[in-house]
Amino acid sequence: xxxxxxxxxxxxxxxxxxxxxxxxxxxxxxxxxxxxxxxxxxxxxxxxxxxxxxxxxxxxxxxxxxxxxxxxxxxxxxxxxxxxxxxxxxxxxxxxxxxxxxxxxxxxxxxxxxxxxxxxxxxxxxxxxxxxxxxxxxxxxxxxxxxxxxxxxxxxxxxxxxxxxxxxxxxxxxxxxxxxxxxxxxxxxxxxxxxxxxxxxxxxxxxxxxxxxxxxxxxxxxxxxxxxxxxxxxxxxxxxxxxxxxxxxxxxxxxxxxxxxxxxxxxxxxxxxxxxxxxxxxxxxxxxxxxxxxxxxxxxxxxxxxxxxxxxxxxxxxxxxxxxxxxxxxxxxxxxxxxxxxxxxxxxxxxxxxxxxxxxxxxxxxxxxxxxxxxxxxxxxxxxxxxxxxxxxxxxxxxxxxxxxxxxxxxxxxxxxxxxxxxxxxxxxxxxxxxxxxxxxxxxxxxxxxxxxxxxxxxxxxxxxxxxxxxxxxxxxxxxxxxxxxxxxxxxxxxxxxxxxxxxxxxxxxxxxxxxxxxxxxxxxxxxxxxxxxxxxxxxxxxxxxxxxxxxxxxxxxxxxxxxxxxxxxxxxxxxxxxxxxxxxxxxxxxxxxxxxxxxxxxxxxxxxxxxxxxxxxxxxxxxxxxxxxxxxxxxxxxxxxxxxxxxxxxxxxxxxxxxxxxxxxxxxxxxxxxxxxxxxxxxxxxxxxxxxxxxxxxxxxxxxxxxxxxxxxxxxxxxxxxxxxxxxxxxxxxxxxxxxxxxxxx
Length: 747
Known about the structure:
Layout: H1 9-19, E1 26-31, H2 32-36, H3 42-46, E2 63-69, E3 72-78, E4 85-91, H4 115-128, H5 131-134, E5 149-152, E6 157-160, E7 168-172, H6 200-204, H7 207-218, E8 223-225, H8 227-230, H9 236-251, E9 256-257, E10 262-263, E11 269-272, E12 298-300, E13 306-309, H10 319-322, H11 325-333, E14 337-341, E15 344-348, E16 353-355, H12 391-398, H13 408-420, E17 427-428, E18 431-432, H14 436-439, E19 443-450, E20 469-474, E21 491-498, E22 503-505, E23 514-515, H15 520-526, E24 538-542, E25 565-569, E26 572-577, E27 598-603, E28 605-611, H16 617-622, H17 626-630, E29 636-640, E30 646-652, H18 655-662, E31 669-683, H19 688-697, E32 704-716, E33 719-729, H20 730-736, E34 742-746
Parallel strand pairs: 7-8, 7-11, 11-14
Antiparallel strand pairs: 1-2, 2-3, 3-4, 4-13, 5-6, 5-8, 9-10, 12-13, 14-15, 15-16, 17-18, 19-20, 21-31, 22-23, 22-27, 24-25, 25-26, 27-34, 28-29, 28-31, 29-30, 30-33, 31-32, 32-33
């Protein structure tokens, strides 16, 4: 490396490291004090190291290191050079560059987008990604949908959707500014050539929609689907039909073949996340849309070497777009996305994520990776029926907002369709029927509130489903199924067997009930016969420490249950399970169950006192602060019998319930509990101190406690509604429960 390109040894070291390819993946540059005590250009960007962390001058003895992540250079700040992540940089590619593979950054025009970049992305995806994007793994076979209406962006009017095979969709922030819609009274006029291009109607269209019409033509497409124009808003039947199909519209925006009713899955969704409403527009296309205002952080290391600070992933920072349930579903269901975010443009498909700032890698152009903390979309969710795979999707969706709370099921329908291609039996209001008892044990993340219908004629969402609540939610981890990945001192549960048979119906008084396909227990019993071959695709091995990561292995996996074998599936070779379950054929389409909101079963019931002012064991373990432990901000309360013995715990749903229990601080408030399964609960202990904490709750028991998993319910007009969930010690439940079984109708 010639010294004429840099002004100091540090700069030379950085450039040399960048050019080394895979030969070197990590170097320590030196202490903060030594790196900033210079007038060299590298000082300017090192001193701006981490805007969210400590001022660089205040950690002068910390070390700065560099490592490679894909083609990026990442600076890391820590005491020893191996700590937390910092900022990501890319070297700017220059003409006739000696190191083209390690220098991929582009310096962008802050006002205008280079449309050739987008056209190149589309071309690369079409040519190089093949079936990975044309036929995503969950969509190898599906019924395509033809919208009633499409916008012909060349003719500037609406045309019947059934007559045209390929269309683009728009996902955008509607906001409060949209005042023009398709209606029965104007649908004929909207079919007149040019009506959407100029004149009084065109003037009423929000800027984002007008710009999208132009951008569709620019990228070589013709037809566009936008909700407010392609759904006749005052046609109640058509409106409901297309609202229920919106996820499929985004999923199958594609080339549709009318001869066989199948789609080629080549569609694109324009995702407009910038701004606060539909008047923001798709800015930055010269001669078509308004200017953008894009600020790129370009830094020099001495001529001609430049770097940019690169946004390594789509940040999803716009709360107006990313906080909405409908747009969240649209985003997840889109196969190929052109994303307008923070003044720049991204491409995202099932294979790659490309940024306007970076030149795509050399063939095969596969650079998309998902960080462990990132939520997958519908096409990168693992195709394996493990409830743990749903936790991120569930948590993200259920915290989104809805203008009309009763739209929750429709706004989840696309996600539910995708998951129905993974779980045998499909899903009922978001709960997989295969693991139905386990699904009923879903937990709130913090306090929430019920989603009540705003439409007089609409049905209420069921309280037993997370869709019936506005709250972050997650399915419980069942240690009787999966064997690995349990955190230190984490509350864990196991479900051993069901205690009843569940049915569903569309009315509480209906006798036409469908038995739910909750078959996990059947497969658990089948696995006990080791003379039989495992289910298709599964392999069986002796149970031992090699069945997972020993550092995080569930300690209860070796609890004397006689577990001799573990199972793994070819679709999920790095995960180990205690019994196999069916893995659906991804080449076939699997039906979505009819959604009926009421449940029926016969089960046992008991009345037990709930007592406040106790945090969860997990919360106690994670905090040494006595102030935190005494704080009333908890979601768990203890259950105790008439002798004051702690016999279980209950997780509350609403903050108002906490106040209810604090009024009964001595004897507690009596709660009605119904059993949903048998199992155990406890804490994954790794030290004597943690074990002592558990025994403070249950001094006469081991840390693993046999129990009944229960729901707290309250009744209204003969229908029980979920108020919380929890566990009761097995021997106590069998002593306290009523003699006769209860006919439970759960709404």
